[in-house]
């Protein structure tokens, strides 16, 4: 069995990724979504960009893996999520599209987090033997469920805020 240790870059990458996910969860708790104009939203975005960029030179196998393509996908989704409102093609739906893009970055970030954690910890005998291990597959299934529940929660919360705001606007006009 190969050693379970991380390189210096791997340690830096892991630290940034953990802090990025904590920032995401704090942003979700605080604002009900990842909002790029809030401090937690900005922290999440920048830490996630650093996480993705530090992941690219890490190649355990000597060539790009699925994790590298996940990082590239996240690096594409982040600017789409940040700038979707300025595109104006989505109109009133831009906030919902932003939720989709930025929530998807969290979802994608959690995939390697689950795989790497379960195949590396505990150091003396990792929980999973590889990405196809049944425990990882169950973790991925749970992640998909959490992703959809999280998306629904955020969209319902946004919809209710808008509805409440619209009612206040209507009552102010009357």
N- and C-termini, Cα separation: 73 Å
Instruction: Quickly count the helices.
Output: 5
The total of beta strands comes to 0
In N-to-C order, the SSE pattern is: HHHHH
Largest sheet: none
Tell me which oligomeric state these chains represent.
single chain
Number of domains: 1
How big a fraction of the residues is strand? Answer: under 5%
Q: Estimate the global geometry from the Cα principal axes.
A: globular
Structural class: mainly alpha
The Cα radius of gyration reads: 19 Å
Helix content: over 70%
Poorly predicted tracts of residues = 168-174
Average pLDDT metric: 90
Tell me what the structure shows.
The longest helix is centred in the last third of the chain and has 40 residues. This protein has one domain. It is built from five helices and no strands. The C terminus is likely disordered. Helix content is 75%, strand content 0%. α2 packs antiparallel against α3 and α4 runs antiparallel to α5. It is mainly α and 174 residues long.
